[in-house]
Each structure stands twice: as structure tokens, then as C-alpha cells.
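Whiteboard transcription, Tuesday session. T.W. wrote the C-alpha cells on the left side:
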């Protein structure tokens, strides 16, 4: 018999990084996945998780959250982990050059959950998010962004700008700020995430400056700046940008996900690269809730389950440049694992514009394993042991 810490038995493993879907056991030892097989009988585990009837996936990766707790909108990273099966999350510009070190000290380094961050072009980040962090151009600090990334290369991995005219200014001022964010990403050899709001530039215009690996978040928002033209056709420039490797991220949020837009885009064969939540204090109790609820909306819209898992695991791992270690259940990789339950019923799903749709499936995180340890909390089925009959 071989020792292991956790044996997850009988779940339906879905791991798009290996094109794998089927009933498998997973063994975890010393923080790593040590075996994945149809029936692992020669292991002596400390803990057994009965996963019959559950999906076993790589730990989910949420590419858009706000977990800087000194920021008014900030949530606690470690509570989001078991709530959503999320083992890695990217904070998108809650902090800028003046407060990233404090964010790191007080939140990133204290969290058990892996938190990475993008540095806001505004030196104050989102501390006064409601005032518009770049309405005063003196707050733009491209050199500070580059310096911050140099000082925190393990956790500060890119640049963020919220490109709304009421946030970064209209006309030339807005355009200037956008270009400063682009150049900070180039100078730091990282990538840029652009929040699209009511932008001072059109999306095709911004995309001309964006390179493979750069990202548009809130890609299914409504309003004046959309990925669709006035006839609800996906912009040609959006399609070609996606083809050349620009990332289109969901970033659901409280104001950035509209059924009409996502339905029109999917109908025309335009899928997002990654599913993410934009979770913060004002949407965590609806309409967003958590990562599995956001994924469930795509199931309702007809995206196949394997694709939805891919967009929430290996897809974002690639964006983070960590596809070798994250978003996968390959033997030898870190044991970040989500157990998801599919509940069936008639569920009301709400977009960011208070419009509803009815879906028949709701994914719920029932247990989460983070770096080889079972995380307390979540869906409450960690003690789940099903009788044979
Ligand atoms: Zn956000």
C-alpha cells in the first residue's frame, strides 16, 4: 500500500488540459497530484472524499476579482476560495503604485489562496473607485507601474486600466491614459487588461494597440461600447483580435454582463476566452455570487460543460502564463482541485441589467482542495459518504 493524504474516489473527472472526461480516482500527497486512474486501490489515504455523482475539475481560476480588503469594494480572498472552488485568483487593479506593497503585505501574503495582481495605472488604484481614479491626470503613474512590477515580480504580473470616460477622462485625456497603460505593459514585459466601460475610444480602435496576451474584460457588457456593432454583429476587429490571441474575458460584475450581448455573440460563434466574476462587495450577493454560478449561466446559454470548465481552468492558466502548473490535474502538478455538484431545477439567472433567464442546471462548489489540503467551508459535503444502495 502506498500512503497518500487524500483520495478522491469515483468522481467524474473533467480536465480539458488533458482532454479527459470520465470516472477516475485522484490521489494527493504532499501538496501534489500523485495519481489519476480508473480505480486507485493500492493507496492508504488519510482522508477519502466520496465524489460519486460530482465533477472533479482542476481548481478554478478566477481572472477578475477584487480582494484588497482596504479598498471599499474588497472581499476576503480566502472566503471566496471554498465558496467558489477557486484556488487561484487575479486581483485586477485594486491597487496602484502607491498601495500595491500594502496590498501585498496585508492581503496577498496573508492569504492561503493564491492571489496574483494587476497594477492599476492610477497610483491610488480603486481606493476612491467612485470618483474615477484617473479623472485627475496627475494620478497616472506609468513609471510606478513598471517599478511595482519589478519589485513584486512573483505576484504583480500585469497592468490594469478601467477605460471608462468617467474614470480616465474623455477625448484626448482618455486616449492618452489608455496609451500610457499600453506602454507600461510593454515596458514591464507583461500584459494589459482593459476594462471596457463607456470608453473614450471604440473597441476596434483600442484593439489596434493590443497584442496577443492582452485582455479585454467585461467583454459582454451593454451600453455604448460593446463588442457588437449597431446591428448586433460582432465587430470584425474583435474577431481578428481574438484570432491573433487577444483575450476576451467575461468579468461579469454588477454592470458588465448583458444577456442580449452574450446571446448575440455566442450565436455568431464568438466565445469568451475566459469566464470570470469581477467579484466585489457590491455583487457577491447577486447578481454574480461566485464562479460556479457564473459558469452555470454559460451552461444555460448552451456552451458545453467541457468548454465551460476549460474557460475556468486551463484557459485562465494560459493567460497567467502558468499552464504547466495550474488549471490541470496532470500528475506532478500542484493539488488544486474543485469538486462541483450539478444541481437540477429551475434557476433564475440575472444579468447585470436586472434581466432574468431560467436555467435548469446550477453548479455549486462542494469541496475544494488547495495545495493538497481540504479547505473548510464551501458546499458542506466534505463529510459526504454515499451508501452503496
Ligand atoms: Zn473589476
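and on the right, the sequence the group agreed on:
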Amino acid at each position: 500500500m502506498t500512503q497518500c493524504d487524500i483520495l478522491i474516489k469515483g468522481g467524474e473527472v473533467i480536465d480539458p488540459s488533458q482532454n479527459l472526461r470520465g470516472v477516475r480516482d485522484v490521489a494527493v500527497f504532499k501538496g501534489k497530484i500523485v495519481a489519476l486512474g480508473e480505480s486507485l486501490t493500492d493507496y492508504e489515504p488519510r482522508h477519502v472524499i466520496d465524489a460519486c455523482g460530482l465533477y472533479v475539475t482542476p481548481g478554478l481560476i478566477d481572472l477578475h476579482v477584487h480582494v484588497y480588503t482596504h479598498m471599499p469594494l474588497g472581499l476576503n480572498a480566502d472566503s471566496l476560495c471554498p465558496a467558489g472552488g477557486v484556488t487561484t485568483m487575479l486581483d485586477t487593479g485594486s491597487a496602484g503604485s502607491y498601495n500595491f506593497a500594502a496590498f501585498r503585505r496585508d492581503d496577498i501574503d496573508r492569504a492561503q489562496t493564491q492571489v496574483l495582481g494587476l497594477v492599476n495605472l492610477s497610483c491610488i488604484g480603486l481606493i476612491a473607485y467612485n470618483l474615477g481614479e484617473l479623472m485627475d491626470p496627475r494620478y497616472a503613474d506609468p513609471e510606478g507601474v513598471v517599478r511595482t512590477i519589478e519589485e513584486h515580480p512573483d505576484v504583480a504580473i500585469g497592468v490594469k486600466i478601467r477605460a471608462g470616460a468617467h474614470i480616465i477622462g474623455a477625448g484626448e485625456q482618455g486616449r492618452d491614459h489608455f496609451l500610457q497603460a499600453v506602454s507600461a505593459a510593454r515596458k514591464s514585459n507583461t500584459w494589459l487588461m482593459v476594462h471596457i466601460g463607456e470608453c473614450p475610444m471604440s473597441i476596434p480602435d483600442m484593439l489596434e494597440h493590443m497584442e496577443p496576451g492582452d485582455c479585454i474584460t467585461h467583454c459582454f457588457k451593454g451600453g455604448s461600447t460593446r463588442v457588437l456593432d449597431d446591428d448586433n454583429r460582432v465587430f470584425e476587429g474583435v474577431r481578428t483580435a481574438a484570432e491573433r490571441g487577444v483575450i476576451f474575458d467575461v468579468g461579469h460584475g454588477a454592470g458588465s454582463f448583458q444577456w442580449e450581448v452574450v446571446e448575440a455573440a455566442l450565436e455568431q460563434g464568438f466565445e469568451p476566452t475566459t469566464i470570470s466574476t469581477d467579484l466585489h462587495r457590491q455583487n457577491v450577493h447577486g447578481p454574480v455570487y461566485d464562479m460556479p454560478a457564473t459558469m452555470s449561466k454559460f451552461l444555460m446559454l448552451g456552451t458545453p460543460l467541457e468548454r465551460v470548465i476549460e474557460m475556468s481552468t486551463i484557459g485562465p492558466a494560459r493567460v497567467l502564463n502558468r499552464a504547466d502548473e495550474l488549471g490541470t490535474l496532470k500528475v506532478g502538478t500542484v493539488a488544486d482541485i474543485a469538486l462541483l455538484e450539478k444541481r437540477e431545477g429551475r434557476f433564475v439567472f440575472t444579468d447585470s441589467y436586472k434581466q432574468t433567464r431560467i436555467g435548469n442546471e446550477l453548479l455549486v462548489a462542494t469541496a475544494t482542495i488547495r495545495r493538497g489540503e481540504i479547505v473548510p467551508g464551501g458546499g458542506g459535503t466534505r463529510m459526504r459518504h454515499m451508501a452503496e444502495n
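Someone added at the bottom: Residues 50 and 385 are 6 Å apart (CA to CA).
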